Every structure is written in C-alpha cells, then in structure tokens.
Amino acid sequence: MSRSAVNSELPILKATGTGGTALAAFHNALVGVNLAHYNLIRLSSVIPPGTLIDPTGTAPAPTGSWGDRLYCVYAEQRTTTPGEEAWAGIGWVQRFGGGGLMVEHEGGSEAFVTDSILTTLYDMVQGCEADFGAPHFVVNGAHCTSKPVCSLVIAPFEMSSWHVGAPVPADLDVSRGSHPLEASANGRALSPSRA
Questions:
Q1: Which helix (H) or strand (E) element contains residue 72?
Q2: How far is CA 98 from the centre of its chain?
Q3: Residue 180 falls within a domain, yes or no?
Q4: Is 111 domain-assigned?
Q5: Is residue 157 part of a domain?
Q6: Structural domain containing residue 34
Q7: pLDDT score for 165
Q8: What does the pLDDT look like over 58-98, one tens digit per residue?
Q9: Average per-residue pLDDT for the chain
Q10: Residue 104 bridge partners (DSSP)
C-alpha cells in the first residue's frame, strides 16, 4: 500500500461513532475508517496538482505504522444530547489546470453543512470561477439517541513516519546550525537544545 494519495486519487472517507464520551465517539468514528492509530495533522484547503478526488471512498487510503503522522483534511461534529444530530462534510472544486480547493464544515443539520460548504467554495473562487469546475461534496450525519455520537468525513493525504532515519526536511534540520524557532525575545535568542 502507498503512504500517499497525493498525485493519485484521494479518497473521501466517512463514518459515525458512538462512545461513553464525545471523544470516544470521535475515536470510534476513526476506527470506522481504519485511521484511529495515526496522529492526525490537519491541513488547510489546497489540493496539490495531479491529485484527483474519489468521493466514493473506494480509492486506497495512505497506510503507515502505529503512531505515524497522517496529513489530512477532516470535518467532525459531536453531540452528547439525545435527539440532536451531528453532521460533517467536506467539499471541493478542482482547477482545470490541476489542483484545487477543499473545505470542511460541521453543524447540527445536513442543510446547514451543505449550505456552508457551497457558500465557502463559491466565495473562495470568486473572481476566478472560469478556472474551476463544479463544486462537489460528501456529508455524513449521526443522530444521538442516548450515548454521545460523532460524525466524521476525512480526506487522508499522506503518511509520515516518526522513525529514526526518516528524512528530515532541510528547513527543519537542526544539525545545519539554524532552526525556524530561533528568535529574539527580551534580548535573548530562543533556540532549541542541540544536545
């Protein structure tokens, strides 16, 4: 299996979870899409060129080892109140020249989430509508009957390992003598320990 869906087909996955707490319900929703054993790193809104979107969720998701970092866009809504609904969704537009934009929204109804996704996408492409295709979206909902519930929609982009020996990006390599955290505060330089 691949560690990346970038420059390939990015699946949009969805699941609902229940649990004794809202956080447990979120975890169980991640279990439902087989992503509960990764550390999620949330991305913003840009789809890299060469990357297509699979709204059916059948394209393979990136895979990795326990605790690896998963770069993703996700929407998740939780509720603990019986009778309430939890809705989450991801929407996107593809650029005709490659790449695109992706957004996520959550709320208490399908109509609210769908409207929020479409409004955001329309606003984001305003002034350059001719460069983008039609908007698409995937939404998911859950109804709380007794236990807390979570509705999740997630787009897993790429996996990255914590293992020793994994490549370190040049701009974060502290062995080169500089680090992006170096700064001046109250006349003192702040830098990470180089022990």
A1: strand 69-79
A2: 20
A3: no
A4: yes
A5: yes
A6: 9-164
A7: 61
A8: 999 999 899 999 999 999 999 999 999 999 999 999 999 89
A9: 86
A10: 90
What is the mean predicted confidence (pLDDT) over 7-24? Answer: 95
d(CA 51, CA 34): 22
Query: Into how many domains does the chain fold?
Result: 1
Structure tokens at 18: 């229940």
Q: Are strands 136-143 and 85-94 parallel, antiparallel or unpaired?
A: antiparallel
Contact 65, 3 (CB under 8 A): no
For residues 76 and 89, is the Cβ–Cβ distance under 8 A?
no
Give me the CATH number covering residue 79.
3.50.20.10
- Would you say residue 166 has pLDDT above 60? no
User: Do the domain assignments include residue 191?
Assistant: no
Q: Is residue 156 within a helix (H) or strand (E), and if so which, with residue range?
A: strand 149-160
Asked if residues 143 and 110 have their Cβ atoms less than 8 Å apart, the reply is no
Cα gap 158→176, rounded to integer Å: 26
Distances in Å between the Cα of 178 and the Cα atoms of 38, 174, 181, 195 are 30, 6, 9, 14
What is the DSSP secondary-structure string of 10-70? EE-EEEEEE-SSHHHHHHHHHHHTT-TTSEEEE--SEEPTT-EEETTS-SPPP---TT-EE
